[in-house]
What does this fold into?
Amino acid sequence: MKVDSKDIVAPEASGRVAADRAGATDAGSPARRAAEASVVSSTVAETRAAAARDRVVRVSQLKDAIRQGSYRPDAGAIAQQILNDAELTAQLMAMLQH
It folds into this structure.
């Protein structure tokens, strides 16, 4: 999944703004935590929606390229990503076993 950095909002900063608007000035107050959770939740929802739109466009482009016979996958890049994923999985499994 590709996420553009301009779509990312720092939850801490926006949560403080939302919490301040709600009148919560104590960092650990329930109102502040609720406001921050709300901001994080909406940011996640927006990011998921943007990723879904991007995916639809990308899949459509791939379908068109396949139909036209112009799709040429990069076998080296695919192999490298498979190795990267396997390495990450192995590292995560090792961390979970300790």
Notes: The chain has one domain: 5-73. The chain has a mean pLDDT of 83. Residues 5-73 form one domain. Helices lie at 11-21, 30-68, 75-97.
